[in-house]
Amino acid sequence: MILPIVAYGHPVLRVQCPDIDASFPDLQKLIADMWETMYRSNGVGIAAPQVNHAIRLFVVDTEQIVEGFDEEDKREYPNEKGIKRVFINAHKIEESGIPWAYNEGCLSIPKVREDIKRGEVVRLRYMDENFQEHEESFDGITARVILHEYDHIEGKLFIDHLPPLKRRLLKKKLDDITSGKVRMDYKMLYPKK
């Protein structure tokens, strides 16, 4: 089932989410719905808070990015290997490497894109959809997408990485999203007025 995506300004996007266990109600259905919602909205990742669930869960598919690389991308990211993965109870162990800028957007903040600097590598401890524990490092585009989704379960948004002046310049656009003036071809859940 395609779920509505929570729009900027909704309080669930600012919650530092708690861990869950295997008894979380209808977890496998929620994961399946998140995949369907993410693909329907042309995303490469989506976190549970974006579908109004304040839990430590996100899904990422960077295989689709790597498959879509043009020749320039292949030269710039020659070792990039995409993943398609579920992350439950993820906790960042380390973010390392030289911070690099990449133009990011967010399904919850439609029509806003900005260059955001993040580390080259992220090391996480997490569980998969079968609650098997993993500790793994990711780099490149995959690390970037993971860090973006990880921010969501920490109650942060990509715009929080911008300097204050840049954030002030975005205020009108952000207010328009919060008030429901920005419409997308996917269903949005706007904050209550």
What does this structure look like?
It catalyses: N-terminal N-formyl-L-methionyl-[peptide] + H2O = N-terminal L-methionyl-[peptide] + formate. Its cofactor is Fe(2+). This is Peptide deformylase. Belongs to the polypeptide deformylase family. InterPro entries: Peptide_deformylase, Peptide_deformylase_sf. With 193 residues, the chain is an alpha+beta fold. The chain has one domain: Peptide Deformylase (Alpha-Beta Complex). 27% of the residues lie in helices and 29% in strands. It has six helices and nine strands; from the N terminus they run E-H-E-E-H-H-E-E-E-E-E-H-H-H-E. The strands form three sheets. A five-stranded antiparallel β-sheet has the order 2-3-4-7-8, with helices on both faces. It has a two-stranded parallel sheet with strand order 1-9. Strand 7 and strand 8 form a beta hairpin. 32% of the residues are buried. The mean pLDDT is 95.
